[in-house]
Amino acid sequence: MTEPEILDRVRLAFRDAWIPVDLALERDVYLDDIAGLDSVSRVRLILTLESAFNVEILPKENSQLRNIGDLVDLIAKKRGA
Question: pLDDT, tens digit, for every residue of 38-51?
Answer without folding.
Answer: 999 999 999 999 99
